[in-house]
Amino acid sequence: MDQVLRIANSPVLWLLATLIVGVVVAQALLYLRMTLSFSDRFRILTGEERRIVFKTATINSIGPAIAVFFVAVSLVAMVGSPVTLMRVGVIGSAIFEFVAADQGARAAGAQLGTDSFTLQAFTAAVWVMTLGGMGWLLSTFFMTKTLDRAQEKLSVSNPALIRAMGTATPVAIFFILGANAAVDKQWLSDITVAMDDLAAVAVSALCMVALHFAGRGRPWLREWSVGLSLVAGLAAGYLVSQSLA
Amino acid sequence: MTDQTLEGFYRTRFIPRAHRIGRLTLLVAMVFCLLPALYLSFVLGAFPGVGVILTGFLAIAAFVGIMWVVEPISYFPVLGVCGTYMSFLSGNIGNMRMPVVVSCQNAIEAEAGSRKAEVAAVIGIAVSVLVNLVFLIALVVIGKALIDILPAPVAQAVKDYTLPALYGAVLVMFMSGATRRDALTGILAGLVVFLSPVPEIFGAAGAGILAIAAVVLTNVGRFRPAGQRRVN
């Protein structure tokens, strides 16, 4: 195990992880530059709006980034820093990487975080994380052009459809994510409601409604609304879990 | 000529360039991703065997295989071309990219589907990718120290309730920008999948696809007669 972690934190793996992170950063910067020049050329965003977008994106990334950090910390203990950095940086749902590493280790007859986790088991874990994450990269590589063309065709014949899709789809996704977070169920039996999770979902939703109305005359409030609702939801979830315990 | 108008430029310059950047970076990323596994296997000689890798891979593919195809489709209407390439390379879509996109669009009051909304989405996602990396690098540099300075209740609350709270707030935000009809379609699609025996981990992607299908079906019925009348 110690020897595995020494290799897992070796300079070569650091170098390889840096390469991947470099691609992610390069891509983000290329798109940022291209889009800013597109925006300037046709005056799509004013300087003020641009500043608001930068600020809003930063504020609203911090909460989720801290949450990712928590899962990543336990991954570091299992597979070392470089692999964590590169896997959670690329296609990282930290939870998926955890399951993938676990399955890879199991297939090699080992268990994460124990002495049975040999270099071979570590290698198996890295392979499974890599190939598992590759699925999304491949499908995005091949499908995005097709999706774009399909959407373009639809928008020419029916522009309202695109707007409807862009608003109905995320509502459906976040409705079910919220419902699944608060309610555990098998088919329609064994339904259990987690009161603390429900409180977190409901309070942050209500807070958002309130901030939406309050934000009408106060643009700065709109930049903070998700962040503030998040804090209210965290507090509510914690208080309910304490009062139930 | 066509380059001079916003839409012309968007179609003939911006989008082709976006696909080029996206595909090139994904290709490079896929190759780079394989390097650590290859290095461990063939330089250090720890290759665990095809059988072991396949066993582990199939265990994963069985539960995420469908998502490889379904997720890019169901997030596309919000993420757009650049956003899709960026989000699927850097991950954390439901918990970070989507909330950031809707917050940015909302903060500048950009209408869903407009070019202004798309520009806000691309900038927002790029910034959130960079912010997330700063945190990940902090993770490997200062490690658990950041968690240790948070008071225990705060750490507990962040760990347990960030996702539920985020889902509640983001749902409301998306609904506030939707027409009543679209919001209702979305809620119904989500409810149908929630009440169905579809396993929880496919829920989000499944609800997204169902919503797209529902919107297409209901709108085709609504708009085609008008279109035909115009032709006749």
TrEMBL record, chain A:
The keyword Transmembrane applies. The lineage of its organism: Bacteria, Pseudomonadati, Pseudomonadota, Alphaproteobacteria, Rhodobacterales. The chain crosses the membrane at residues 12-32, 52-79, 119-139, 160-178, 198-214, 226-244. InterPro entries: DUF5058. The keyword NADP does not apply. Keywords: Membrane, Transmembrane, Transmembrane helix. This is DUF5058 family protein.
